[in-house]
Each structure stands twice: as structure tokens, then as C-alpha cells.
């Protein structure tokens, strides 16, 4: 009983920290974008949510909020499922990996820009992974589930490529069809999707391993 209470407290504290970080970083990033933008409010809103980083951190915020406060709502059952939390964990880890492996060396962020970037790309991915690893209930996950998990990143890649055709705006240099050419941008997009598949297999394997060890 004492162990369960300790686990629950740790769970809630970790989710609370993640929520607090997102509550600070998401509005701050939006403010910074408005401050330096010549677009209308709607234009800034579209550009803001054109970044996979913003979309995924928003999903983390929603998932964390429902797990911490929203148990009385029916939709919270979806966000408390192991499959949902594992999928969100895959998404946010990819956010961290892509930035730290591909983009960190090509951006020079300072001040608030750097603070919110570290929250989005380093702190939250690590904390949410720990939440998934230590506090999420064990549940069998089929490898076939990966197909459903890919819907979100596939839609994002397709939208980004076609949105860029009409606006010449690509949020990430590795899918910038103007500079790289469409074939290269598509290839890079497919490689990113492949990374989702690989990481999904890894996390499902870890989940199955946890299930075996607990038994």
C-alpha cells in the first residue's frame, strides 16, 4: 500500500512538472513568434502549429493533463491507455532526437528562444520517457499498432511538403523542397518516418520486457 502511494505521488509530481514546463514554454514560444512576425494572428497561428515540435509538445500537454486531472472525463480513458502514452512517448522522443542530432548544430538560439527550445527538445522528452518507463501500467501492445501510430507523422509530413509548395515555408531544413528539391525532401521525410517505426519497435519491445520481468 505504501509503495502504491509513493508511486502515485511520483507519478503526479512528474506529470505536474511536465505540465508546468509546457504551460510556460508553449505560450512563450507563441509570444516570441508573434513578436518577430509580420503575419496576422491567424497566419502566426498556422505557422506556430506547422512545427512538429509544437504539435507534439501540445499533445504531451494534453495527455499529461488528462492523466493528472481529467479522469472524470470519458476521453481521459483514451489518454490513459498504455498504447496512447507509448505512442506519445515515441513522438516526443523523435522530437528530441531530430533536434539534438540534426538541428542543434545549425541553429543559434539565445535568451528565451534557447530556454523554450531546451524544454521542448530535451527536458520534456526525457521527463515524459521516464514517466512512461516508470509509471505507466503494463499492457500488452501488438507490433501491428505501429501502423496506427504512423498516421500522425505521415499526415504531418504530407501536409508540410504540400503546404510548402504554396507558401515556400518549410519548418525544417531537411524537408525544404525549395533548397533540396522535392525528391530529396521526400526521401528525408521517409527516413524520418522510418525512425518512427524503429523507435516504436524498440519501445514496444521494452514494454513487453517489462511485462515479463514484473511477472
TrEMBL record:
| InterPro entries reported for this sequence | Pr6Pr-like
Q: What keywords is this UniProt entry annotated with?
A: Membrane, Transmembrane, Transmembrane helix
Asked whether the keyword Lyase is assigned, the reply is no
Per the UniProt record, which residue ranges are transmembrane? 12-34, 46-70, 82-103, 115-134, 146-166, 186-206
Q: Which domain of life is it from?
A: Bacteria
Which protein is depicted? FAR-17a/AIG1-like protein
Amino acid at each position: 500500500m505504501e509503495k502504491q502511494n509513493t508511486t502515485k505521488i511520483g507519478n503526479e509530481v512528474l506529470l505536474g512538472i511536465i505540465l508546468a514546463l509546457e504551460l510556460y514554454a508553449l505560450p512563450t514560444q507563441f509570444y516570441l513568434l508573434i513578436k518577430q512576425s509580420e503575419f496576422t494572428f491567424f497566419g502566426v497561428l498556422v505557422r506556430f502549429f506547422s512545427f512538429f515540435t509544437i504539435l507534439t509538445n501540445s499533445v504531451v500537454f494534453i495527455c499529461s493533463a488528462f492523466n493528472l486531472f481529467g479522469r472524470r472525463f470519458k476521453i481521459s480513458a483514451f489518454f490513459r491507455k498504455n498504447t496512447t502514452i507509448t505512442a506519445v512517448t515515441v513522438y516526443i522522443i523523435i522530437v528530441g532526437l531530430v533536434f539534438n542530432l540534426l538541428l542543434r548544430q545549425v541553429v543559434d538560439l539565445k535568451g528565451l528562444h534557447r530556454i523554450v527550445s531546451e524544454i521542448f527538445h530535451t527536458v520534456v522528452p526525457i521527463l515524459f520517457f521516464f514517466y512512461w518507463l516508470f509509471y505507466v501500467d503494463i499492457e500488452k501492445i501488438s507490433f501491428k499498432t505501429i501502423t496506427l501510430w504512423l498516421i500522425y507523422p505521415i499526415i504531418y509530413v504530407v501536409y508540410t511538403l504540400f503546404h510548402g509548395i504554396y507558401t515556400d515555408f518549410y519548418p525544417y531544413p531537411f524537408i525544404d523542397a525549395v533548397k533540396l528539391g522535392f525528391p530529396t525532401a521526400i526521401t528525408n521525410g521517409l527516413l524520418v518516418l522510418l525512425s518512427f517505426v524503429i523507435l516504436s519497435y524498440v519501445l514496444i519491445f521494452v514494454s513487453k520486457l517489462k511485462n515479463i520481468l514484473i511477472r
